[in-house]
Task: structure prediction
Amino acid sequence: MKYIVATARAPFSHDRVEGKDVVRQNVGGVASSLRRLMRDREGTWVCWGDGTSDTNYQEEAVEGYRISRVILSSNEKRGFYDDFSNGTLWPLFHYFREKIKTEDRAFEPYVTVNRKFAERISRYADKDTVIWVHDYQLSLVPGMIRKMLPDSFIVMTWHIPWVAGEFFSILPQAKHILESLTSSNMITFHTDIFVRNFLETQEQILGSAGSIRNKVLAIPLGIDDKYYGAWNLSETRRKSYPKRKTIFSIDRLDYTKGLKNRVLAVEYMLSRHSDLKGKFNYVMLVTPSRTTVSDYIAMKRELEMNIGRVNGRFGDLEWTPIVYMYRKVSDNILKNHYRFSDIAFITPLIDGLNLVAKEFAAASEDGILILSKFAGASADLRSAILVNPYDIKEMAESLYGALSMSPEERRSRLADMKAVVRRKNTSWWLSRIEKEISKRWPGGTNKSKPNYN
Ligand code: G6P
Result:
């Protein structure tokens, strides 16, 4: 079986830095899993060439497969990425009604860019190829391909939540997008809830969901458990880690992540438990994201004001309760935090999955995971402390309880979670998807079956 994978983000980009072309690797969980698939299979990865010198690398052979980059003009980028993908679809699929921009003008560049992707895909597709399209940025691609190549086998994987049908109907282009998605042969989400919402949406907007029921599946993405579980860091790093208890989080700066509510929970806890002063640090790592989208610019200021208030209210010369860092970090530093933090505090208001939670479970030595019950990963990580991210008091109490949890309870919860992330890892995810493809497309069944290890 050969693949054409299509994602908005590229596995590798090229940037011009000080007169030289430098390769930037996408280290996100989806990109890493798909790279593994593509290394084992022949094929082409169609993506947006977002690097400053990607025009020179529109087609490139890497790791045994081909990358084909779609180049966008700055107007196309603004309309497709900033306005429609992240100004309309992203807030829509995360229930942020007041942020959804419904002006029609952004839809046109979105259609144009989706068409560029579909045309590029059709250039490489033949009868043995599975076309695997990913996420909300490319929602119209399945419908366009279906028209260009009626017999193709198309898989759509939706990585963000799917909302209730009534909410989805806010979108003026709802029917158009739904028709495109349902023209895929298989659609996967990360949880049963999103599958149910999708089927209910189909029933409301296009009539009965009966005809598509058996092609919509929940197959949650896993992580490379061995990579995160491998501890080759020196023990001296442990010694350099803060002596105080450490609460840790890492998120893209995004209003869906519930960052402000976490700061409020820490404030609430400190205002009720003065004995905790000086006893912990909350290491809050935030990575820059979508910095050209207006809602993202505004929320940075609000978050930083809240952090400043809490530190100003409780901190002193010896102690800063919230250690806030706004930057990207290397994987080794991240693994170090995962490994040695006492608590991971991962409380998005809603999230399609949240791989950070799974990575922490795989890497942690002895830690506790406090996880939002609205993160897709909570369906798998039942032994985390599950909280409602809108309930500041409950989050504060869970944090307080976690700071004094018995070692037995800590160990048993972590062991349960480690077992799940080990079993449902990246290889499991890829194998499940391939198995489902083979069931539905016997003509395309594999001759050789790599196990993606
Ligand atoms: C989410 C989406 C991805 C997206 C990622 C990073 O995880 O599901 O499709 O690529 O965020 O966002 P960005 O806008 O930087 O691609």
The pocket of 6-O-phosphono-alpha-D-glucopyranose is lined by residues 9, 135, 159-160, 289-290, 352 (CB under 6 Å).
